[in-house]
Amino acid sequence: MREHRARLAKGTGAGVGKIYFFQAGDAVKIGYTKLGLEARLAQLQPGNPEPLRVLGWIQAPRSRESEIHDLFKDHRLIGEWFRATPELLTALSTITA
Questions:
Q1: Rounded to the nearest 10 degrees, how much is the dihedral formed by the CA atoms of 63, 32, 30, 47?
Q2: Crossing angle, helix 62-71 and helix 2-9, to 10 degrees?
Q3: Which of 8, 62, 73, 95 is the most exposed place for a label (fewest CB within 10 A)?
Q4: The pTM is what?
Q5: Which strand ranges, in their side-by-side order, compose the sheet holding 81-83?
Q6: What gap in Å lies between CA 35 and CA 40, rounded to an integer?
């Protein structure tokens, strides 16, 4: 978990936004936004049959989103959606703490 935290927490500077982690049932969306989290949640909720809840977020450049996707590629369902496995949820709770 320390490795995940160190790799995900690095990176700041120009073009920094938020990488967010939203859960819907057994899936987690890992995305990037320069909007507020509530605004992004409001955009995504209408197209999702399950309530979305915010697991957390980190401030980081957009490039970090791809790195995080790569870290959890074995959990990928489709696009930016990943299986909400205990391993993934634990890693996310550690890096967003």
A1: -140
A2: 160
A3: 73
A4: 0.83
A5: 53-61, 16-24, 27-33, 81-83, 76-78
A6: 6
Q: What is the 3-state secondary structure (H, E, C) of 5-26?
A: HHHHHCCCCCCEEEEEEEEECC
Backbone angles phi, psi at 16, to 5 degrees: -80, 135
For 6-40, what is each residue's pLDDT tens digit? Answer: 455 454 445 799 999 999 999 999 999 999 999 99
75, two tokens: 């959990």
Q: Which two tokens stand for residue 84?
A: 């909400």
Q: At what angle do helices 86-95 and 2-9 cross, to 10 degrees?
A: 50
Sequence-ordered list of residues with C-beta below 8 angstroms from that of 74, at least 6 positions apart, any chain: none
Contact in structure between 21 and 96 (CB atoms under 8 Å): yes
Structural tokens at position 10: 């690095």
On the CB side of 53, how many CA atoms lie within 13 Å of its CA? 6
How many CB atoms are closer than 10 A to CB 8? 20
